Amino acid sequence: MNTHAVRLESAGAVVSVVSAEQAVTDWSARYFGTWWKAAEADPASVSAGALVTAGVDNREYDDIALAVTRSPHTSTTYARARLLLAADASGGVIRAVSPEGALAYRSEPGVSRLDVVGCRTGDVATATARLAREMVRGLLLRDGWAVLHASAVVQDGRTVLTFGDKGAGKTTTALALASRHGAGLLANDRVFVRPGERGGVDVLPWPSAAAVGLGLLEALGWFETARERLEAGETLHPTQDERVTEALLAGDRTPLWERGKELKTQVFPDQFTGWFGVPLATEGEAAALVFPRIEAGAAPAVDETGRVLGGADFMSGETEDRYPDVFALLGADGGGTAAACENVARRLAELPHHSVVLGHDVAANADFLAKVTGLAT
Questions:
Q1: pLDDT reading at 359 higher than 80
Q2: 146-209+268-373 architecture in CATH?
Q3: Closest CA to 132 of 285, 30, 8
Q4: Where are the domains of the chain?
Q5: What pLDDT digit, counting tens, does each position of 244-258 carry?
């Protein structure tokens, strides 16, 4: 049986994904791509170091599921699905099963190894990438990195960080600067940060699919490209609601809403480059902070109310409720140690802060943002 492997690397944190199913390793290679320098590896060379193995095996899934349910176990929610957890009395091995997803897990935190077993290749591939990302996160957190809730773009090494709650304009700001002024997209929703050796703040990407509303997709000039790609048989990220796909294929730009939440396109990282011509950046140094506010009909302008970086702009174990550290992969708070966050916050406070009001004109927003942040070309 052939075995396939992909090596992920970011700032010295290295995790390998190994599977007999090439579709599983291909998924991780695509998902992390250039952001985490994903590359094929010799399976024989990855036995040492942090490792995620993945398999599609109904019998093995049944065996683990039975072992978990017959043992004392607890129930929690992980990745929006019910998860049953059973730990060995010694605390060395954690077993878990997600019945709805037909996924089983075996984690050995002491040796940085996690095994994923399931019944469906697509579900195994998605879960494997998710856990590989968590394992990289743990390595980075233990090395002094923290996690900010921010989007980021990079130009000539200078990184613009954009902060705000959902709907504030983090994605709008990042994609406007990337599409109109050639900045590299570093991250859509969160980033790793650590005090740099030269006194600044180093920034790394957090790979993830990006949610882009139909209105923003049209404003960026990307709607027709996405439609043509879908008509040619390509697909967006599988978490995308089917109604969004139908709207794209029908050419309907009208934003879709359900219970007050906008349904958006879910863009794979590599599609930013392959579909829309936006390069992905792999690192940078923080140069400016932006705090946007979107207001319909507004002309881009400085917001005199102002805002500064706060504790809520850092991720934490409490805010990472979708992916609690049930497999003991992190070895630190999900957003970084208190000392790491404090050091980063102190250095970021010394950088230019820009509170801005943005409208719905992407070109005007991009030109204004490029000027105030110093990224104008």
A1: yes
A2: 3-Layer(aba) Sandwich (3.40)
A3: 8
A4: 4-142, 146-209+268-373
A5: 999 999 999 999 999
